[in-house]
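Project standup — Tuesday

K.O.: blocked on the structure for the chain from last sprint. Re-posting the sequence here as requested.
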Amino acid sequence: MSKTINKKDQKTPVKKAKIEKKELKEKEAVSKKSFITPNESVKITLKWTVVEPIYKKTVNHFAKSVKAEGFRIGKAPFAIVEKNVGSEKIINQVLRELLPQAYEAAIKQDNKKPITTPEFNPISLEKGKDWILEAYFSPIPEVKLGDYKKIIQKAKKEAAAFITKRNEEIKKEAAACENKEKNHDHEHAHQALGENEIREINLQHIFKGLVDEFAPAIGELLLRQETQTEYEKLVDQLKQYKISTQDYLTRRQITIEQLSQELAGQVLSRLQLDFIIAAISQAEKLTIEDKEVTDELDKLTDQNIRQELAKNQNYLNQIKANLLQRKTLDLLLKL
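H.V.: unblocked you, prediction finished:
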């Protein structure tokens, strides 16, 4: 089962009236635009004829370390080993061995396309009978792209207007600052927006336009698992600064439930955008060649590290994904 945010981290209740306006707006925005779909499931039946030999093998394995009165270690009868070890521990071990392959077969048979690790719900695990479970998962979200080029062009016009307005504000600020500091030895730099800033502003407007228009439905389990991951990252970051989760909550005057909702809203928007970007990549038939991956690897100066990472398929896949996303974002800015 997936882990959930630990409510023990919240010790001091905080009045709802103290929630920051910004957080209220974020939650309101999430409730309006979010689309969360129920998990899908497949039924898994493990025939007892398949379970029994694994069950016996598991009990015999545990028997090697079981101490029972009147018997030498490893010589206790089967029934005594079962009782001493406990049915839950035995069943879990059997399922760890049988479930992965059974799950893969079930989703293939039902033509499902999960994107999450599954959660299993046992229906019947009775000894001597077939074992029955349900596996829950989130499918790959369906993105229905409309005229995304039109949305992007509109977003870029809005971004251009924002950039023009901001540059005008910067000029006014510079002029006001110059008048105030004529007799001072130091100067404040008031420069127009740079290339990187302009790129970021354009992308943020494009992202907002795409999510507002094409936000796909996200599976509940995917959202929950990704939110948990973000929570764990936050906790790790706080530990680096020697800040407890409770101190963080107290400083922000929020509860663990409010933090969970906040993280879920952020994760939801990110997931929706990720799947939209992926859909556009596919629609535009963008690909990454092996040479592009090699060129990226060549940027690593340490030869030994480079050679090791070149053998790591997960790392190579991540490079490929990053390059594809970068190529897609470059395309969005050119449309």
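K.O.: great, moving the ticket to review. The chain has two domains: 7-38+144-179+192-334, 40-137. The chain has a mean pLDDT of 87.
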